[in-house]
Design goal:
Number of domains: 3
Low-confidence stretches: 1-46
Oligomer: single chain
CATH class of the largest domain: Alpha Beta
CATH superfamily of the largest domain: Periplasmic binding protein-like II
Distance between the termini: 83 Å
Structural class: alpha/beta
Number of helices: 14
Radius of gyration: 27 Å
Strand content: 15-25%
CATH topology of the largest domain: D-Maltodextrin-Binding Protein, domain 2
Mean pLDDT: 87
Helix content: 25-40%
Length: 401
């Protein structure tokens, strides 16, 4: 006779099985009693159950335990805005019987501060950009990735995979995920012609009408205008004290034109929608959000070019859910999911196979028709050896009256 299915929250019985002791099992809905199968399970009429029936009952109990554990699992993310949108993470939650909990960072330094401030164990997956990915890889805060557990890794852009950003001592600490620029965003109703230079931010006629990111990217942009990216753009990330002093003076001269420093994508979108600003350094995410709200926004890469980023997904060393985290990394770099992420962010996917799910116009808009040419105009963030000094200069600019 087959045992009846176990029913959580009720006395667990199989046919006329009687159990003699109960132990508690913590479930998401509360504490319920589960029979202690280490005790003898006896049939009310005939004594000991046949051994095979007892074995089936024990296996059913084990399956219940496994099911309850899966339902309880939660994966905690610390990522950039747009990387945990329900339009794509909900499918992962349903497939893995788990809950995604996301926190968003406003800058790379925000991410590093949280990880080093004792909060690393609060997060399972992070999405560091290329300016801090190397330092996180070296610091012991991230788990080395077993690439054999991520089959889709081989589909990712070889150019991105081959970069040394997340490779330390022969180990790989992350997978390329999304990439893109920090473009110049502008209200099309405020300009007769599209802006073609970052220098417009300093034009006196735009006093109080400009916004820049509360991030070192604004410092890099000023350094570009001073020519410190010539002949080698990577020099932006290793400026001397004298060069940083000149950058500081350049940014101090910008302050009268700055309506507000923005920290989140939503904050900058609101500044445009409220007509407080007409131009800003931003992300393609804001361009996409504003277009969806029918705001007359456009973006461009000025003639000086711009800085940009390659975001990676990493598993934290302290994560208690590493198996689920591996499944999440694999899920997020699959071509169909990469397409859904670009729908939200308008960032360029690391998996070129995502293009098969796009219209020609979408591929063109994400520069997947010629990504190498587009990359030539983006000075991707790199590790900044003197990051503390850069932060000191930026903080002095913000504090100046």
């Amino acid at each position: 006779m087959n045992p009846a299915p176990l029913s959580p929250g009720k006395n667990c019985r199989a046919v006329s099985i009687r159990v003699e002791r109960r132990i508690p099992l913590r479930l998401a809905a509360g504490t319920i009693g589960i029979p202690h199968f280490a005790d003898f399970v006896r049939d009310e009429e005939s004594g000991l159950l046949p051994r095979v029936v007892r074995l089936v009952a024990i296996l059913a109990f084990a399956m219940l335990i496994a099911s309850c554990q899966k339902q309880n699992e939660s994966l905690s993310l610390l990522v950039w805005e747009g990387y945990a949108d329900p339009s794509f993470v909900h499918a992962f939650e349903e497939a893995h019987h788990c809950k995604i909990s996301a926190s968003y960072m406003g800058s790379s330094d925000d991410l590093v501060a949280k990880l080093r401030g004792g909060s690393a164990s609060n997060y399972d997956v992070i999405s560091p950009s290329s300016d801090v990915a190397t330092s996180i890889s070296r610091s012991g805060l991230a788990e080395p990735v077993d690439l054999s557990r991520i089959p889709t890794y081989s589909q990712l852009s070889s150019r991105l995979r081959d970069l040394p950003l997340v490779k330390v001592n022969g180990q790989t600490f992350g997978v390329p995920f999304m990439w893109g620029p920090n473009p110049l965003l502008y209200d099309t109703t405020a300009f007769d012609q599209p802006p073609d230079s970052w220098s417009l931010f300093w034009d006196p006629k735009y006093k109080g009408k400009i916004s820049v990111w509360d991030d070192l990217s604004t410092l890099y942009m000023a350094a570009q205008l001073l020519g410190y990216d010539k002949p080698d753009p990577s020099h932006l990330y290793n400026l001397s004290d004298d060069e940083l002093a000149a950058v500081k003076q350049k940014l101090l001269a910008l302050k009268p034109n700055v309506r507000k420093l923005w920290s989140t994508g939503g904050e900058l979108s609101n500044l445009f929608q409220n007509h407080e600003v007409i131009a800003a350094m931003g992300w393609p995410l804001m361009t996409n959000q504003l277009r969806q709200s029918n705001f007359p926004i456009a973006e461009t890469i000025p003639r000086e070019n711009t800085t940009g980023w390659i975001d990676h997904l990493m598993i934290t060393k302290a994560s208690p859910h590493k198996e689920l985290a591996y499944a999440f990394l694999e899920f997020m770099i699959r071509p169909q999911i990469q397409k859904k992420i670009t729908d939200v962010t308008h960032y360029t996917p690391a998996n070129p196979a995502a293009a098969q799910f796009m219209t020609p116009a979408e591929k063109n808009g994400l520069h997947l028709d010629d990504p190498d040419a587009y990359m030539q105009r983006i000075y991707f963030w790199q590790d900044v050896p003197r990051r503390a000094k850069y932060i000191e200069i930026w903080n002095e600019v913000k504090a100046a009256q």
